[in-house]
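Re: weekly structure request thread

Next one in the queue (231 aa):
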Amino acid sequence: MEYSDFESENTDLLRNGTSNAEVDAEFEDDEEEIQMSSQEVLEALQRAWINEKFAPDLLPYEDALVEMVMIQLVHMEENLATANKNDLLYIVHRMEVERIRFIVASYLRCRLQKLETYAPHIIEVESGRPRNSKRLSAAEHKFAVDFHESVENHFNELVTRHMPQNHQDDERARRVIPNLDTHVFARARQDVGEYSLAGGELSVNIRAGAVHLFRYCDIEPLIIEGQLELI
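Done, posted below.
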């Protein structure tokens, strides 16, 4: 994809990715910062969207990426407001803005779908993670809790309260959890070298650009670290 319409000014990003957890860690560990162009920011967000789309479990929220892309969209909208709407260049730029908005909306929508499907499981797992490893934004966590409570209250009014007492407290039995054994296609963004699979029983040499079929649970750390991308 071409990103020539996206402004080329540099934006600060945290080293080792831009997830919400790492933004928190920056204040604790005083991590080194690097420069990343607006084009690279958009490419990173698109990669996060594709990873989220194909990953069975919820990945860390890319808070910094989303925020920077939204800021750039505001600047682009301001520039378009003063442009000649009959100009072909205006139409091209308007299409680019809509395309970027689609990427952001699709990324957020994909995460919301997982929250609705796995809300109780995600809430429980998230509560056990350390502060610098959280995967939900504050808004997503609130949504998940409110959604789960609403569903449980509705289910209780319609079904649970009419059931025998010994079947009224089996919320965990109704819980849906993501299948981490799902197989996914992944492409290496860099040389990983020998990597252990299936609890150390197998190993594979992962080279940059190579495409492999893995169990998701075996490679999730590499996806979060940005060494692999789902396709």
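The chain has two domains: 36-157, 179-230. The helical segments are 20-29, 38-54, 63-81, 88-127, 138-158, 171-174, 216-225.
Next request, please.
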